[in-house]
Amino acid sequence: MTRGANDQARRVDKLAWIATPKFVERIGRPVPLVVFSQPCRFKQRALEMLNQAQIPWEIVFKSPSLSGLWAAARANIGLTVRSSYWVPSRLMILDPMQIGLPDLGDTEVDIHYFEDALTPDLLEMIKHMERSILLHPTGLNPKANDFEPERVA
């Protein structure tokens, strides 16, 4: 990850299926998705991979904001797809093999922000990423430390 003069952070990370631990037990078909209402490359990748695997899906909730996606996922409305680098409390990264969904691969993530305009969840994520830069200046995901998100076993 790099940070520019315009409050920009960049990182290459794995895309992940994300939901609550309770929701893992209920994932059925069609796969219920929580997505951005506007175009999103994470949403596009998820739909492409589900279609390629011939897995039926349904968009059950759309939000114009990341806070809305997290709230809908926390409410067990569906699962969402985001970068695996940071997942807020009460949500977890799901193992695609364990839940019968395709691996989503990697993506480059750019974050442009104005600190005064961020929600608490977003500001916490960015500060987490900045701390990680100090510990992992190469921008690689940490292998085994407290910056690794919780994962389904």
Write structural notes for this entry:
It is a single chain. This protein has 153 residues and is of the alpha+beta class. The chain has 5 helices and 7 strands. It has helices spanning 21-24, 41-52, 66-74, 96-99, 120-135; strands spanning 2-4, 8-19, 31-36, 57-63, 80-83, 92-94, 106-112. Strands 1, 2, 5, 6 and 7 form a 5-stranded antiparallel sheet that branches. A two-stranded parallel ribbon has the order 3-4. The protein is globular and about 40 Å long. The two termini are 27 Å apart.
Please outline what is shown here.
The chain is of the alpha+beta class and 153 residues long. The protein is built from 5 helices and 7 strands.
Keywords:
153 residues, alpha+beta, five-stranded antiparallel β-sheet, two-stranded parallel ribbon, 5 helices, 7 strands, 27% strand, globular, disordered N terminus, disordered C terminus
> What share of residues are in beta strands?
25-35%
Distance between the termini: 27 Å
Radius of gyration of CA atoms, rounded to a whole number: 15 Å
Q: What is the ordering of alpha helices and beta strands? A: EEHEHEHEEHEH
- Gross morphology is globular
Question: What layout of secondary structure does this protein have?
Answer:
Blueprint: E1 2-4, E2 8-19, H1 21-24, E3 31-36, H2 41-52, E4 57-63, H3 66-74, E5 80-83, E6 92-94, H4 96-99, E7 106-112, H5 120-135
Parallel strand pairs: 3-4
Antiparallel strand pairs: 1-2, 2-5, 2-6, 2-7
